[in-house]
Amino acid sequence: MLNSNLAVQLSQARARQQAQEASRLSSPFLQHLAYLFGPFSAVWALLWAARWRYSDAERLRELESKPGGAILLDLLAWRVTAHLGPYQVPNFSKSKMHEEPLRVLQDPLLLDYERMRALSRLGQLSQRHLAALGFSPPGGQPGSPLKAIEPILFEAFYEDPASQTQTPGTSSDTHRALAAKIILDVVAACPFEERCVPAWVLSGLVKAQGIPWQVGPQGEELRATLLCQLLRTPSNAAAAGSLREVREYLGGAGMKRKEDTIWPLKAYLLSGETHDLLRRGAKLVTKQCPGSIELQMRRKRDTPSLQTKRDLRNLWTSILLTAGWASFRHWTAVFTAQAVLQLAAGVGGAIAGTLVLEAVWSAEEQVIQSDWYWQDAYGSVPSAAMVVINCVALAWASRFSCILPFVACRLFKDDYLDAHRTFP
């Protein structure tokens, strides 16, 4: 009798232990992790094979002319792809995939779709600093990355003195916006010693019209920021001292204006301020050409720097999208204290999940932009670790209503707001 009771107790204990192990294995986190790990591993393997296959420069260049090849190149050069597997952009840089678009842009009789395709390819590459530093003039001519993109600078800033209607920046809005993004990327990637540009670029910049230089108050601040970046190069500052329009621009009082909107925070984040930037640019010019510009009185900024405002706007947009989606998911149409607290807890958890995912994404971007990650032959171990981190982070965040807004931000918001933009 004693033995039978002991056997029953042992079997019950064994059953409880098995039930506990089964519950641990069936936890939502582990289930989601298992669902994610398979597809992410498959994508990583495909990207590793692509990194190996297209390490051959000739094979990668031939892909552009094959059916569907342009789409595959777009996928391989996509910013999101760099977070999913081995880094593909180094193959593009070694194969000098920028040379053909730059050669095409030298043709004044380009069709719109040809110009758009060339600018899009260059824009994909210029977003990565080390790829932008690899830009060189077609034909193996010596020169800096800014010398290589001279056809784009010409399109954006050159003014034809023989024409009364031609002013800098008069191409189509789409082309103008893409060209400006490439110029900003390349200038940011270059050390200030290598930012030498022709004098017509400086004069054209202060007179350029349309997108993005005249889009809201921040467009003017973007113009002044780019000019200051170029004037950090002594030769550019010396050339600016002999350009009347540049001296007049830098000698002005500048502007301080908020976006015209009823939302106070949006007006603050989209505001523009240039008086300190103009004074900084004037000091750089007078350092090379003393007395050429009269410095304005120093004034304190009412808003943060352009970089800080853009970063805050990117984060605020992500939080708004997350809060809206979480409110929709947790809305019960019941107006009790408990329902309101549950709604607030759901929205708060979703925002916390978004902040964690954004932090992981930003850290991965820093790794991807680093020299050691670029020089890694196939990026096998670091990219595999990145995939594991992504799976763990997404599996953890799946308990909150933040996955869909996070994916939407990566697919749409980042490109629209130029989330990667920096102004060193």
TrEMBL record:
The chain crosses the membrane at residues 33-50, 339-357, 377-397. It comes from the Eukaryota. Keywords: Membrane, Transmembrane, Transmembrane helix. The keyword Transmembrane applies. This is Uncharacterized protein. It comes from Symbiodinium pilosum.
